[in-house]
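Hi! If you just cloned this repository, the fastest way to understand the data is to look at a raw example. We've pasted two of them here, unedited. The first protein comes first, obviously.
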Amino acid sequence: MPLPKRCVEPVHVSRGTVPERLQLPSELEAVTNGTLANTVRQLSSLSKHAEDMFGELTREATNLAERTNVLQARIDRLAIKVTQLDSGVEEVSLQDIQMRKAFRSSRTFQQQLFSRNSMPSAMLDTYAKCDRPPPLEKLNEFRDDGRDARKFYTDPDYFFELWRREMLQDTERIQHDRGKKVRQPRSNSGADGRGTRRVLALHST
């Protein structure tokens, strides 16, 4: 079930505005004042979410601008190197032509993109309000297979384990296909690829 990222609170502005144990001279006036107060709270919650949204957009735009600047600097350095190359001036020996160096990339790959640290603040607040899973780990001492009882209820590593099993199966299948030798059936024809000739019997006339 998907969780809402941002929820404006309070949802019901007129509910619970009249105290149960207090005698009020006018319930209608109490409901009106309570509704007005909850409406102000809704506006406050809405402004908080708007500030969070613009802050998130600012961080994303700043990150994109930094990556663009790094890419532009790499393009400028490459353009300078290309203009400095001149095959007519520089002499390359035959030994240098045959020399091959192993390519090593200095690019770093981003990992843990969907971790707790990279979660937006609004989603982190919503996640913190969720109910905690039941304490099923107390049943581990009664299990004989050694598995964690909580993983039958919730398992954060389920999709990673599923992906890992699929990758291992694909690797084993590729290795198995490489190990098989394709056997072609031998034909009954001669060595030169032509069939056997039939000798025709001569009939006397």
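Ok, and the second one:
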Amino acid sequence: MIELRNITKKYADFVAVDNLSFKISRGDVIGFLGPNGAGKTTTMKILSGLIVPNSGEIIIEGMQTSEFDLEYRKRIGYMPESNPLYKDQLVSEALNFALDLNSIRDSKVRKSRINFIVEATGLQTVFNRPIGELSKGFRQRVGLAIALVHDPEILILDEPTEGLDPNQRVDIRNLIKDLGKKRTVIISTHVLAEVQYMCNRVIIINKGKIVADGPTQELTNFKKGKVSVDFVFTVDNPNLASIKDYFFEFDPEIDVDTNQVRIRLTTTDENHLLDEVTQFIRTNPKVVLYSLSKKQTTLEEVFKSLTIGK
């Protein structure tokens, strides 16, 4: 269990993190989201022990930590957005260096950890190559491997799949989901579709404050009980003004391609909306229904609604 209590971090007069509090349990895979400048990276650096808050405290397994608590830092695996890699190091040297930094000396343990992590992150073919010769995707893998090599209890990942091709993304996503079964994993990413796939919980912050915190599925259903329905039909010479006026109460978004009309209708009363669509078709015999489907709210739409009000 990790708990942040009333964490505040200021840079001069700018409040980057404003009285932030939340708890994270073992087995949670958290999507930590927010627009640029919201305080995500600052919070992740505080969690990883890299910077110190102006006020507040971090509690781990019931014990308060401090910036000097090296034992706490050893329990953390942190992958920053910009990997601080030495380009002239071999991948093998980088992993061994990471083990040295975490005071892992036993040769059998070192060999076991490196073998596991090299296979898990797909670094077999580049294990003895200089990091500077690797593609961005492979450098991302090296950064993830360094964060994992000492078998941390808490894994903090900032944009872990950036620069990876689609197949590599799938591999890393599956690895992160598997790691989350026994660890606490906190992920910051701009690829919101991946959060829906990997994370069982989402925390969204804006201007240093939490604006949403809950199970991923519940957040994608939050939108104040509203549902959206996509209604597609064909009709000769569609009268857009008349159509928009008919469906005005559902905030229609209309797109026309020749004689095909696409309308997105939004409501809190799905049955009433369907009744109105049915009535529209019945009273307009030239209308031919093409499709009618409920639209699933995406995490991206929730994110926009909470951070920019759209």
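That's it. A detail worth noticing about the second one: The first helix runs from residue 40 to 48.
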